[in-house]
């Protein structure tokens, strides 16, 4: 896609700090560096989001994720790592080429936070069973 910034990095039209590249996948440092070593792993095929991904493209991307994650952990002595993927604007996606964020974590106070809300009291075993049945009709 001509206007996609990640496709431009893939095609070497603009610079990128590339950590890994093969026939199917590219991994490069995110220019925002949420934390030191923040890296993006992308398919070379232009696909917008997880809903557009093929199983094959996803397999290629995630076959590389552990290798890059371990390199980041070892290089920067990270205590943990968030692996994040945002799909569609409502979920925070701002670049519409599928990408996985590898965000090394160093302390509980570093510059990245994830907050999960516990809504357990809103869902009974019966409502969870009904949700499951709804999902299974589309699986």
Kindly describe this structure.
- With 139 residues, this protein is of the alpha+beta class.
- It has one domain: HIT-like (HIT family, subunit A), CATH 3.30.428.
- The chain is 29% helix and 18% strand.
- It has helices at residues 5-10, 55-76, 125-136; strands at 18-21, 25-29, 39-43, 80-84, 100-105.
- The protein has a 5-stranded antiparallel sheet with strand order 1-2-3-5-4, covered by helices on one side.
- A hairpin with a 3-residue loop joins strand 1 (18-21) and strand 2 (25-29).
- The two termini are 30 Å apart.
- The relative contact order is 0.16.
The quaternary organization reads as single chain
Helix percentage range: 25-40%
The helix/strand class is alpha+beta
CATH architecture: 2-Layer Sandwich
Q: What's the CATH first level? A: Alpha Beta
Beta-strand residue fraction: 15-25%
What is the overall pLDDT average? 95
Compute the number of strand runs: 5
InterPro entries: HINT (IPR039384), Histidine_triad_CS (IPR019808), Histidine_triad_HIT (IPR001310), HIT-like (IPR011146), HIT-like_sf (IPR036265)
Protein name: HIT family protein
Active site: 99 (tele-amp-histidine intermediate)
Motif (Histidine triad motif): 97-101
């Amino acid at each position: 896609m001509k206007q996609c910034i990640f496709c431009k990095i893939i095609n070497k039209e603009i610079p990128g700090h590339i950590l890994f590249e093969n026939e199917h996948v590219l991994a490069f440092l995110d220019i925002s560096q949420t934390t030191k070593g923040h890296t993006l792993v992308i398919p070379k095929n232009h696909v917008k989001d997880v809903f557009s991904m093929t199983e094959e493209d996803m397999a290629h991307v995630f076959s590389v994720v552990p290798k890059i994650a371990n390199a980041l952990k070892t290089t920067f002595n990270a205590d943990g790592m968030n692996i994040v993927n945002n799909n569609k604007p409502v979920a925070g996606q701002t670049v519409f080429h599928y990408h996985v964020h590898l965000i090394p974590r160093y302390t509980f106070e570093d510059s990245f936070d994830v907050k999960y809300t516990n809504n357990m009291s809103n869902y009974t075993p019966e409502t969870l069973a009904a949700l499951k049945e709804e999902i299974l009709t589309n699986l």
